[in-house]
Specification:
Chain A: It comes from Lentilactobacillus sunkii DSM 19904. The complex is a heterodimer of chains A (about 290) and B (about 325). Chain A is mostly helical. In chain A, about 75% of the residues lie in helices and about 5% in strands. Chain A has a single domain, classed as ABC transporter involved in vitamin B12 uptake, BtuC. In chain A, helix 2 packs across helix 9, helix 3 packs across helix 8 and helix 9 runs parallel beside helix 11. Chain B has a single domain, classed as Orthogonal Bundle (ABC transporter involved in vitamin B12 uptake, BtuC), CATH 1.10.3470. The radius of gyration of chain B is 20 Å and the shape is globular. Classes of the chains: A mainly alpha (about 290), B mainly alpha (about 325).
Chain lengths: ~290, ~325
């Protein structure tokens, strides 16, 4: 029972990183129906930014996190402006390839500029382990969980309560109708990218603290896992992405703890396929009826 | 059959002429082993991409799991030719690879092909990753280190003939009754069903055919390169096949050929740039997509028949 709770704690910390990334995927997908493959690389940019400012400018954790979110947001908006905006009315598969191209560009550009070596992320917060009834939890895990929960609640508030959030929801339901009632579509889409990418930037700093190693290709696998999480939760649905992220994280740590770590990804994909077969639009996805 | 005899003959002559052209160029020494290597890679990519184009462009099913079927073919060849190291063993291994990948495609396809769009893409990607992870953990396949010293039976004439064969099969499939059924599924599933077309059956047919050609390409890849590892067949490989299809134009076999050649040459030229290679490649990819969103050739298809009828029409107008 103790190991069970221990795995839950580990799974939740990993899952909250996936959830933060999955939120970006799901928001972008909801609004322009694009699988933003470059999202995982924005997370990498966030981690590198955190590494840089902590080492060179001696930022503390909070300011590193916030500045990484700003950098993430800015890079998301720039990528959207230059790479995705010209393709808004082309076939979706074209935009997908462009996204893959941007992802290659970020990964290889960063490897070119900063070499592809793995770096040690500076440990600005000293790890302290707490023991609660035999379950070990570190302050970094608490920090990751708390930060991601705060960010998710903030995101939910922005989407549900603000004017911009209402515009985002309107554009994702029907972009043309939203434009007719006076919503600036370009601005709204940029804002969505900024929000999603800032979460990825935050996730980058958090994972740097948790695993304390970063490299230019670190975004690839978590990016795909987070996308799987977004699909699992029902792509386009914000609560679905969070739930999907936690499910994937917990599933992965459990499979690892029962000694099947070689098959950990296979189990994740298998569960994904099974869930998609039962619920073709994911857990929280809206099942649209077919109309003739 | 008779009506198209002339055009089929022309295609046959084009294929044989192409074969002899490359053969002479190699004999003369214009094509050195470096370029020959590039040609073989292009050929294998053409086989992979035409198969994927059949699934994505003609059947309209967004599959991201092509590398998994390629892996099956590659490992079939690697395992079989290690015990039966002869040309017969090699061709038998291609056959075994096709059979196993058809079975895998059926297992993957029957449940997942009812999903749509990106859900299907992610499910097929997951299935192909599962295949890769299983290969990665089996003893028979050499685990994560992969297999090496695979006897080389696939030289460039084998690859050339296989490119011709798979292209003929796929193009004929597209132009047959089956192909029209598959295209109607792509256009409108409900309307196709109303016309009495069994949509599951035709989706699956295209998927299985695409998967079996991927297995052939995998066999050639394993036998030509002589070393394979599970990581060669990951998501990135599926994506690079997808890039060829989209760059050439979804739904254009000619476009797939052009894109495979362009990317193959680009890759070889960029070898000189060292570390900047992938950066330039990525920028080129994004630029082509932004300025030519429908791919290099769109849905345009080269057709000898049309070429003839057009020149005939011109003659009639002139006289």
């Amino acid at each position: 029972m103790q190991t069970f709770f221990q795995q839950i704690i580990n799974g939740l910390s990993l899952g909250s990183i996936y959830a933060l990334l999955a939120l970006g995927y799901t928001m972008v997908y909801g609004i322009i129906k694009l699988i933003n493959f470059a999202h995982g690389d924005i997370y990498m940019l966030g981690a590198f930014w955190g590494y840089y400012v902590i080492n060179v400018w001696h930022f503390n954790f909070i300011s590193a996190l916030l500045s990484a979110m700003l950098v993430g947001a800015a890079s998301g908006v720039i990528i959207e402006y230059f790479a995705y905006r010209p393709l808004r009315h082309s076939p979706r598969i074209t935009a997908l390839i462009t996204a893959i191209g941007v992802s290659f560009l970020l990964e290889n550009g960063m490897s070119y500029l900063f070499t592809s070596n793995t770096r040690d992320f500076p440990q600005i917060i000293k790890q302290v382990n707490y023991h609660l009834g035999g379950v070990q939890i570190s302050n970094i895990q608490i920090l990751i969980l708390a930060t991601s929960c705060i960010l998710m609640i903030l995101l939910q508030l922005i989407i549900k309560k603000t004017k911009m959030g209402r515009a985002m929801r309107a554009v994702s339901v029907d972009a043309d109708a939203a434009e007719l009632v006076g919503i600036n579509i370009n601005w709204t889409i940029s804002f969505t990218f900024a929000l999603g990418s800032s979460l990825a930037g935050a996730a980058g700093v958090l994972i740097g603290l948790y695993y304390n190693s970063i490299d230019p290709l670190m975004g690839m696998t978590p990016g795909i896992k987070a996308f799987v999480a977004a699909v699992l939760g029902g792509i386009g649905s914000v609560p679905g992405a969070s739930v999907g992220g936690f499910i994937i994280g917990i599933l992965e740590t459990f499979v690892q703890s029962i000694g099947l770590s070689a098959y950990k990804d296979a189990v994740v994909y298998f569960v994904l396929i099974v869930i998609l077969l039962i619920l073709p639009a994911g857990i929280f996805g809206k099942n649209t009826k077919e109309k003739v | 059959m008779k009506a198209n005899f002339k055009y089929n003959l022309i295609w046959l002559i084009v294929m044989i002429a192409g074969f002899y052209l490359i053969n002479t160029l190699i004999l003369v020494g214009v094509i050195d082993s470096f370029i020959a290597n590039m040609l073989v890679t292009i050929g294998i990519n053409i086989i992979l991409a035409t198969g994927l184009n059949l699934i994505i462009g003609f059947a309209g099913q967004f599959s991201l799991g092509h590398a998994g079927f390629m892996a099956i073919g590659a490992y079939a060849t690697a395992i079989v030719t290690q015990t039966a190291s002869s040309p017969v063993g090699f061709y038998a291994s291609i056959f075994i690879g096709i059979i196993v990948s058809i079975i895998a495609a059926l297992i993957v396809g029957i449940p997942t092909l009812r999903l749509r769009g990106d859900y299907l893409a992610i499910a097929t990607m997951g299935a192909s990753e599962i295949i890769r992870i299983i290969i990665n953990n089996l003893k028979m396949t050499g685990g994560a280190a992969g297999m090496f010293n695979i006897p080389q039976f696939a030289d460039w004439p084998t690859v050339y003939i296989m490119v011709c064969l798979t292209t003929i099969i796929i193009v004929n499939f597209i132009h047959s009754r089956a192909g029209r059924a598959v295209k109607s599924v792509r256009e409108d599933e409900i309307a196709a069903e109303a016309m009495g077309i069994n949509i599951t059956k035709w989706k699956l047919a295209a998927f299985v055919l695409g998967a079996s050609t991927a297995a052939v390409a995998g066999s050639l890849h394993a036998s030509y390169l002589q070393t394979i590892a599970p990581n060669d067949f990951g998501i990135m490989e599926s994506i690079s096949i997808l890039i060829i299809v989209v760059l050439g134009g979804v739904g254009s076999i000619t476009g797939t050929f052009v894109a495979a050649v362009v990317l193959g040459v680009l890759d070889t030229v960029l070898q000189n740039f060292g570390a900047l290679r992938m950066v330039i490649y990525a920028i080129a990819l994004v630029m082509i997509m932004i300025f030519k969103p429908s791919g290099l050739l769109g849905t345009w298809e080269f057709s000898v028949k049309r070429l003839f009828s057009r020149s005939k029409r011109k003659e009639r107008v002139e006289s």
